[in-house]
Amino acid sequence: MATYLHTKNRIICALMVVASGFMFFAGYGFAAAAEGTSESQILRALTPTSKTRNLSATPQDAKQQSFISSLRSPNKTRSLTLDERQEVAVIAKERPSIDLEIYFDYNSADIASKAIPDLMNLGRALTDPELQGSVFLLSGHTDAKGGQEYNLKLSERRAQAVKEFLVQNFRIANDSLVATGYGKEQLKNQVNPFAAENRRVQVVNLQAKQEAGK
């Protein structure tokens, strides 16, 4: 009987150790997941590689570059038209990009305080010598909750809020940042249209500094 109890106690202790270890690693995983995107991660994602197509390589590419230049006009304060949003989305698919989960106050374009560290990392990356002088697209996206028109306007205001933060805090040239919203048109997770990952700001390097300076 004593041997049985001794063995049983050892099994219980072993299970407790395993459970404790599982909780530790699970906790570590949650902590890692909760961490924002680092400056170096953003920098790597937005830096063009040798495989990135040069926008001036063909007449069609030159047309696209001219289009991007038109979006940079200092007098351009209006929202992008539907055609402009669609055209810039086509270009963005082939350019270096990264999705950032930027938090905003509920139903608002006010940046939440917990989003500031990620935005600071973004600002530092965009002003790194490797990227400084490039032209970036800031596109806002929402999940599928709510109407199309409402989400479109909300996502646009949020993208504009990110642009204003970067201009004010990092002195990035106003015409180096193109802000627009897509609402729920481009769901990242189409299987779960209400997933948090759909609520994001995508940053795209539309023109590398060498191209933008031409």
Main traits of this protein?
2 domains, four-stranded mixed beta sheet, 214 residues, alpha+beta, 60s Ribosomal Protein L30, Chain: A, globular, 48% helix
* CATH architectural type of the largest domain: 2-Layer Sandwich
* Helix run count: 7
Q: What's the number of structural domains?
A: 2
**Order of helix and strand elements from N to C terminus:** HHHHEHEHEEH
Rg measurement, Å: 23 Å
Beta-strand residue percentage: 5-15%
Terminus-to-terminus distance: 87 Å
* Quaternary organization: single chain
CATH topology-level fold name of the largest domain: 60s Ribosomal Protein L30, Chain: A
Strand order across the largest sheet: 1-4-2-3
Question: CATH-wise, what's the superfamily of the largest domain?
Answer: OmpA-like domain
Please state the average pLDDT score: 80
